[in-house]
Amino acid sequence: MSDDGHQQDGHEHVPSRQRRRFPGISSRAYEHPADRSALVALRKLSGFDTVFKALSGLLPERSLRLLFLSDSVRVSDRQFAHLNDMLRDACYILDLEKVPPMYVNQDPQPNAMCIGLDEPIIVVTTGLVELLDEEEMRAVIGHEVGHALSGHSVYRTILLFLTSLAVRVAWIPLGSVAIMAIVTALREWFRKSELSADRAGLLVGQDLTASMRGLMKIAGGNHLHEMNVDAFLEQAEEYEAGGDLRDSVLKILNVLPRSHPFTTVRAAELKKWAASRDYQRLMDGHYPRREEDKDAKVSDSFRESAAHYAGQVRTSKDPLMKLVTDIAGGAGDLGSRVRRGFGGFTGSAGADGGTGTGTGGGTGKTGTTEAPPRDEPPRDED
């Protein structure tokens, strides 16, 4: 709610919260550049438009709504009233006029999702409700409302349907390959969209510590007294920088079947955004409005996405990303570095500046500073 706690703009029963509100905010304000670029790549995938148009008319959305209505508990002022207050509050803060229906589904696995083609539906599991405290849950509900505001529910619904379909037609070689190509592209986009929704959750909760706690609980359960935010974030840095080229390939293979990024990576990305100038400007009231969306240039989004990826490659500590940088820079010792990377030599680098980690290579906070490659100036670290 607004700072004075009064109800405005026709919203009823909105709980009084001392949090900043963002009237007319466009989803462009919090969308991660990788989210937009992955969606553009998805839409360019051969056959996606045909599949999308066909499924939009065939998916049993009415059946889906009836399923949750009949076998879950719908959140209202009479059922899970505290969740209903959080939902209305989140919609008020992000200025989403129509509050989407939300259901609590019996499932011990902590999870939440926003699905639906015509209108979004938010579903949270009992495992999640029992795991998180009020402020952590507020960030999660804000996360799902962010999905709704960004229009992510449509593609999420199609992903769920195609994943199920791929299992059913696995015995048809060509059919399975064609479907899995689209499923893989959808998963890549959805992983990036989660980073956008995490930002929306922070805008709603406006408590970075609570957002971090929620991610740690999703990763390690309800044992906060045994966990530490700084140590958790150090895991993300070690994950990015550790290992050799083989580990980089394994990271890609590990993440391909997932619909969500790894929790340590999400926490690191969210903390980085919370410390950025863009976030501060947004909190000060300077952000793109929905009324300006029609005038937004697609080329600007392309440039922003390209700059984001270029910056990621340039500053990444991952061995594969370092190799990409070397290829672009025409490193003279590229051949030896490739052989060393796949040969598993992760010890201390010599004068040629290898990419080793562990006790000899740089791993950010937990190791010594890595020597820069020969004939290259030292790079600034984020």
3D architecture notes:
By secondary structure, this protein is mainly alpha-helical. The protein has 16 helices and 4 strands. It has helices at residues 33-44, 48-58, 61-71, 81-93, 126-131, 134-150, 153-168, 173-205, 208-220, 229-241, 245-255, 263-274, 277-283, 298-315, 319-329, 334-342, and strands at residues 73-74, 102-105, 112-115, 121-125. It has a 4-stranded mixed sheet with strand order 1-2-4-3, sandwiched between helices. A hairpin with a 5-residue loop joins strand 3 (112-115) and strand 4 (121-125). Helix 1 (33-44) packs across helix 14 (298-315), helix 6 crosses helix 8 and helix 10 packs across helix 12. The longest helix is centred in the middle third of the chain and has 33 residues, at 173-205. The chain starts with 32 loop residues before the first helix and ends in a 40-residue tail after the last helix. The relative contact order is 0.11. The model is unreliable at 1-16, 327-332 and 344-382 (pLDDT under 50).
